[in-house]
């Protein structure tokens, strides 16, 4: 203990707070610069159609290396929201996704769907009249039907009825809508009736023990059956083991995403993955 601390513990507390605020502000500044300088990367995680045993989709996941250190999106997305950098960041992720789609199209892969994450904040800030995301997709020469926007249940909460306009515009342009992390929010079946959802993504927390926990298995089976009745496709997130894949296949799940098939890949590994998968199937 230094003398200052014993004399005035509050002063010590303030210094610590000050350090945290400084670190936080520095990180926000570094992130802002990274977006401006186009230093944000996007990795792509394959999503497998298990009925046809093909790669059907990819999820775009933002990546940021700050001074040689990877920072998790779980850490920097909240910072991006708070500083509004999430708006240009989200546009950049969409642009890079479109560029990836065009590159694959040139190789003969023109049916793949790319899922792009959008947070509640991005939805709240979106102007459906300007429809910037659709402008980006069209100006990049991409078919809107190759883009699916992933949003969480919070976007569909009753107090956010204005988001229906945004969803309606995106759907009208031909894009798909996926409901991410399904089951972690206030999941309500009525959301699925009121909103134009094409795909539901079962959260990893339901999948983790699906091969050992009968209650989890029963829950997942009934969600899949319900989705089928509503005409909604189901993706299982975070599948790591063969035993999980077996249960999900038997339950009639449509798509699988997870380390069992592949981690998120940098752009250079997409084509090799597609070619390898086609050889092995
Ligand atoms: P998410 O959309 O639910 O994405 C799935 C996360 O699970 C990704 O983490 C992915 O790398 C990870 N994952 C996939 N398969 C497995 C598996 O088998 N095991 C395990 N342990 N993890 C797996 P990541 O890339 O760290 O992203 C975290 C979250 O950050 C995303 O969760 C999403 O909510 C958000 N995020 C990522 N990119 C963007 C973006 O461009 N915009 C916005 N708004 N949010 C993003
Ligand atoms: Mg997602
Ligand atoms: Mg998810
Ligand atoms: Mg998740």
From TrEMBL:
Domain (EAL) spans 24-278
> What protein does this entry describe?
Phosphodiesterase
Q: What is the lineage of its organism?
A: Bacteria, Pseudomonadati, Pseudomonadota, Gammaproteobacteria, Alteromonadales
Q: Which residues of the full protein are shown?
A: 443 to 723 of 723
């Amino acid at each position: 203990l230094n003398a200052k601390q014993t004399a005035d513990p509050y002063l010590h507390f303030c210094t610590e707070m000050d350090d945290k605020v400084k670190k936080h502000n520095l990180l926000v500044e570094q992130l802002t610069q990274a977006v401006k300088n186009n230093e944000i990367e996007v990795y792509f995680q394959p999503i497998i159609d298990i009925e046809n045993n093909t790669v059907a989709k990819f999820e775009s996941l933002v990546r940021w290396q700050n001074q040689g250190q990877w920072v998790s999106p779980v850490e920097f997305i909240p910072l991006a929201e708070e500083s509004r950098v999430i708006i240009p960041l989200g546009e950049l992720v969409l642009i890079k996704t479109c560029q990836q789609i065009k590159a694959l199209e040139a190789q003969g892969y023109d049916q793949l769907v790319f899922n792009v994450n959008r947070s509640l904040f991005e939805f709240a800030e979106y102007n459906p009249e300007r429809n910037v995301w659709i402008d980006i997709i069209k100006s990049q020469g991409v078919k809107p039907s190759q883009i699916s926007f992933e949003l969480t249940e919070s976007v569909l909460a009753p107090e956010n009825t204005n988001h229906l306009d945004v969803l309606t515009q995106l759907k009208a342009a031909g894009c798909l809508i996926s409901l991410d992390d399904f089951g972690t929010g206030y999941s309500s079946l009525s959301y699925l009736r009121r909103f134009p959802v094409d795909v539901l993504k079962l959260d990893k927390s339901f999948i983790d023990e699906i091969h050992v926990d009968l209650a989890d298995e029963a829950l997942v089976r009934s969600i899949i059956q319900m989705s089928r009745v509503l005409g909604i496709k189901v993706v299982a997130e975070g599948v790591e083991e063969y035993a999980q894949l077996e249960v999900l296949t038997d339950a009639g799940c449509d798509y699988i995403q997870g380390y069992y098939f592949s981690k998120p890949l940098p752009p250079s590994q997409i084509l090799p993955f597609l070619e390898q998968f086609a050889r092995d199937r």
